[in-house]
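#struct-help
A.M.: can someone run this one for me? Single chain, 224 residues.
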Amino acid sequence: MLEISVCNKQYKIKQNIDNLLSVLWYIKENINNSLTFRSGCKSGVCGSCSVVVNGIETLSCQTVVQNNDIVEPLKNYNNIRGLVVDNSYQNALLIDTNSQLQLCNNDKVTSKDQSTIDKESSCILCNSCYSSCPVFSVNKNFIGPFALVRAYRYIEDKKESNKEIIINSIQENGVFDCTLCGNCNMVCPALIDIKGDILRLQNKSVQHGYSNPQMLGGFSPDWL
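D.P.: on it. Structure tokens below:
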């Protein structure tokens, strides 16, 4: 028998189920029909079922449940009900950071060019990076990991002719506010190098005349 805590309530599961999302459905259908959670593709693609298990962000559809696991909603968000949080601000972040093509040119894009931004394009909007982010936990105006990665994706896009407008948009509460702790990398199901992308964004910002307050005189090392 499996014992699990979901939203501070203890449940005993008598069925032989090892997938967390399946356990949540079992609880809803057999024990507590008021349990609320998000579920979509069930294949780790849509990102809608992200939760916190034993303090670590994960996709419930991809998680093998263990006895005495503690399941909670994502951190740093307003809780709507159960395991469902309000993540409606995402579209506003993309608008604020101008994270889309601003001025498309006619340059030919090769498969090699595309490969440089493929990983950044694979974000599934699970919000795990924001839940794990210590800066976002104390500053809700922080642009944050997802939006910065999306900004980097378009700055690196060969078809973008106006990269400066994106770089200008990620300065306030943005790229230099990141502590580079790497929490986002550890919880990203798409395995995006978020910390590395933000480091490269800092370097590009310095190249465009912005100063990194953590580096004397705005110096940025050549290896970034």
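A.M.: thanks! The mean pLDDT is 89.
D.P.: also worth noting: The longest helix spans residues 194-207.
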